[in-house]
């Protein structure tokens, strides 16, 4: 099954003139079977044709570990007071996260999607620039196990797929850590959503799409039998090595000096976009990756500024996959 990512955010739907029928036409044009949705509020949901909805990308809080561990002094400092904390998490108690994911889980069941995607990672704004992490993969994985086991019932037809990132958490660079994590998750219908860009970002030495593909194939080989847990693949490309290896401390100081919260947010998002590109994986070796994994779900997770750019991206990705 080959899908594309989309959200019900107005900025995304404006590419399709706010009409899901245009999305359906786009899917047909590019031989796609449906969408993986990120759901914001309730916009456009009343006209969403359920047949195209195959997966739900769950809510993601990049910074959540300190909050879940009830270190409110640190969290309050990071978000400029408890008002900022409430705005970010939707509450001021750690159980807010449990409730948020329970809601997402119920929404996935109501939508009757086939799978959900859960980001397994944690990073503070500061550390996204400095990479001077004061938390480990194991700490993030253990806290995620606790949160997931509290928020999700153990039995459901909806698959729960855990996505790798390049920050501390599930990086897929350590087979034993990843296997231990999955073993501790009580949810039975579970697996991995392999994000190709996120895996490439773990190696800033990569310069070309071919090098990226060869690196991914090597990482998959090192996973051994854990490879069988990969049920889905987010297909995209990122080669931000030069940017990753540069010094971003001045950028971070500029953000700290920015008084407007929304402006700070935009600057941080701009930084992340320079790392995680979401452009087509335009090398034919991408098909070798897919053939190696044999996933149930292939998701073209691409971001474009307008319809024309997205249309071009999809054509490029289909060509690299040998579909046109």
From TrEMBL:
Xylose isomerase-like TIM barrel domain boundaries: 98-237
UniProtKB keywords: Isomerase
Domain of life: Bacteria
InterPro entries, sorted: Xyl_isomerase-like_sf, Xyl_isomerase-like_TIM-brl
Record-level Gene Ontology MF annotations: isomerase activity
Protein name, UniProt field: Sugar phosphate isomerase/epimerase
Organism: Acetobacterium wieringae
């Amino acid at each position: 099954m080959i899908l594309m990512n989309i959200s019900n955010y107005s900025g995304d739907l404006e590419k399709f003139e706010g009409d899901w029928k245009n999305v359906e036409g786009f899917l047909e044009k590019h031989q796609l079977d449906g969408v993986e949705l990120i759901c914001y509020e309730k916009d456009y949901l009343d006209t969403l044709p359920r047949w195209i909805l195959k997966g739900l990308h769950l809510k993601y809080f990049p910074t959540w570990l300190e909050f879940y561990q009830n270190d409110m002094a640190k969290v309050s400092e990071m978000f400029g007071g408890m008002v900022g904390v409430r705005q970010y998490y939707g509450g001021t108690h750690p159980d807010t996260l449990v409730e948020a994911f329970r809601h997402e889980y119920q929404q996935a069941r109501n939508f009757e999607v086939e799978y959900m995607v859960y980001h397994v990672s944690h990073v503070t704004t500061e550390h996204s620039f400095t990479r001077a992490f004061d938390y480990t993969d194991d700490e993030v994985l253990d806290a995620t196990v606790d949160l997931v086991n509290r928020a999700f019932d153990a039995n459901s037809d909806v698959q729960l797929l855990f996505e790798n990132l390049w920050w501390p958490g599930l990086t897929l660079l350590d087979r034993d850590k990843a296997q231990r994590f999955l073993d501790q998750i009580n949810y039975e219908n579970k697996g991995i959503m392999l994000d190709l860009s996120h895996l490439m970002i773990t190696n800033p030495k990569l310069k070309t799409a071919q090098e990226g593909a060869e690196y991914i194939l090597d990482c998959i080989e090192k996973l051994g039998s854990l490879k069988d847990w990969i049920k889905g693949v987010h297909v995209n490309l990122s080669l931000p090595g030069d940017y990753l290896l540069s010094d971003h401390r001045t950028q971070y100081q500029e953000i700290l000096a920015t008084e407007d919260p929304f402006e700070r947010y935009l600057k941080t998002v701009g930084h992340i976009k320079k790392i995680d590109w979401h452009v087509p994986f335009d090398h034919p070796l991408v098909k070798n990756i897919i053939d190696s994994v044999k996933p149930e779900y292939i998701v073209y997770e691409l971001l474009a500024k307008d319809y024309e750019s997205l249309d071009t991206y999809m054509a490029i990705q289909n060509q690299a996959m040998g579909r046109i």
